[in-house]
Design goal:
By secondary structure, this protein is an all-alpha fold. It has helices at residues 2-21, 30-50, 56-77, 85-104. The chain has 4 helices and no strands. α1 packs antiparallel against α2 (30-50), α1 crosses α3 (56-77) and α3 packs antiparallel against α4 (85-104). The radius of gyration is 15 Å and the shape is flat. The chain crosses the membrane at residues 33-51, 58-79, 85-104.
């Protein structure tokens, strides 16, 4: 279970970092750029701990799926970016894929 906590923390810091990416303005703004690099570095560090107990493919599927969903919400609510129906459906399929992996795959470590 602790490996999934590391994975959750990795996702959190990946989303924080990605949220600052737009604010870096192509890395011309120092503070957002530093926050981006530090958050992503910490995210990968935490992901490496998660990989001690979660298979790499499963961890990456969960990490990327949750990252996509949360960063899409950040884009919508913080940056006022819109999502059309195909984007929402695609995100839904990504979530469905992770659910299928976790419920039915023998590769998943639970």
């Amino acid at each position: 279970m602790k490996h999934y906590l590391f994975l959750a923390a990795a996702i959190l810091f990946e989303v924080i970092g990605s949220s600052f990416l737009k604010k870096t303005e192509q890395f011309t703004k120092p503070i957002p750029s530093i926050l981006f690099v530090c958050s992503l570095g910490l995210s990968f560090y935490l992901l490496s701990y998660a990989l001690r107990g979660v298979p790499m493919g499963i961890a990456y599927a969960i990490w990327s799926a949750f990252g996509i969903v949360i960063i899409s919400a950040v884009g919508y609510f913080v940056y006022k970016e819109s999502l059309d129906l195909p984007a929402i459906l695609g995100i839904g399929f990504i979530i469905l894929g992770v659910v299928i992996i976790n419920l039915f795959s023998k590769s998943s470590a639970h």
